[in-house]
Amino acid sequence: MKTIKVGGVPEHFNLPWHLCIEEKLFEDRGLNVIWKDFPGGTGAMNKALRSGEIDVAVILTEGILKDIISGNESKIIQTYIGTPLVWGIHVAAGSKYKSVEELKNTKAAISRKGSGSHLMAYVNAQNHEWDTDDLQFEIVKDLDGAVKALSEDDAQYFMWEHFTTKPLVDKRVFRRLADCPTPWPCFVIAAREESIKNEPDRLKTMLEVLNKETRHFKDLPKIAEKLAEKYDQRLDDIQKWLEITSWNQEQISEDEIERIQDKLLELNLISKKQPNTEFIHNL
Questions:
Q1: Contact 7, 38 (CB under 8 A)
Q2: Tens digit of pLDDT for each residue in 112-163?
Q3: Distances in whole angstroms, Cα of residue 242 to Cα of each of 2, 217, 223, 246
Q4: CA 57 to chain centroid
Q5: What digits encode the pLDDT tens for the residues 185-194?
Q6: Residue after which a domain boundary falls, among 141, 158, 181
């Protein structure tokens, strides 16, 4: 049985993958899909794709685009979440800062360079008309590192997915000042070019199994309760999240890639655009 190594964040978005594995839906189609959690997010997954540690990543759209431009030999094979990601802008619970505007010229905690928390700090800065050249960063690796950095004032704010971080807000570890949604569909599925070349049929089968699951995922009995329990979330928060989240089974459009490249260029996060076809592969 052929093994496909898949990486993703340990967050509620990815429960469909775990259900497919637990229910042996991949196995029934002759695939051994092995999942690896990446608490460090997009930057860590880009590194793992480059090294061959994983074959496939469920990864932030803007993060994989930027890394493909930087030489990551991977391609997007499908959109995964078609709705925006809602990034919460967090400070330590006891922080003196009461508004996002007050965070100008302070330091942002980020998981690593090229991560979503890094790129979205630029989007947030532009939204508030800050000079992005003045942004300062503290690399913290993951959510636990961010808790430490903010509590010790090594960084003053941290951007991470609203609902993943909500338990820390409820426990008064963080205080959320505002939200900053991505201006595009948030998660895509990317595969190494080597995997696409050697295993296109298996990757296609993997997507068929996953897409069958995601099409009816929100209608599964007690799915909100299951998500809340597994990801340490309040039921009402998960219900709100399910309302604003849609899984997608189509390839990302060239128009979307054009729009994201335009934004990355505008923010000086890339030096030039690439042809839109450089980012996608249709299995």
A1: yes
A2: 888 889 999 999 999 999 999 999 999 999 999 999 999 999 999 999 999 9
A3: 33, 10, 10, 8
A4: 10
A5: 899 999 999 9
A6: 181
Would you call 85 helix, strand, or coil by DSSP? coil
What is the pLDDT at residue 6? 98
Helix (H) or strand (E) run with residue 147 in it:
helix 143-151
- Name the domain count of the chain: 2
What is the predicted pLDDT for the residue at 9? 94
Q: Do the Cβ atoms of 163 and 12 come closer than 8 Å? A: yes
Residue 34 lies in a domain: yes
Q: With bands split at pLDDT 50, 70 and 90, how would you rate the model's confidence at 1?
A: confident
Q: Are residues 49 and 117 in the same domain?
A: no
Work out the number of other CB atoms within 10 angstroms of the CB of residue 197: 10
**Tokens 């296109």 label which residue?**
200
3-class secondary structure, 184: coil
The tokens of 225 are what?
């309760």
Tokens representing 186?
């948030």
- Which of 138, 154, 181 is a domain's end point? 181
**Cα–Cα nearest to 139, from 160, 118, 168:** 118
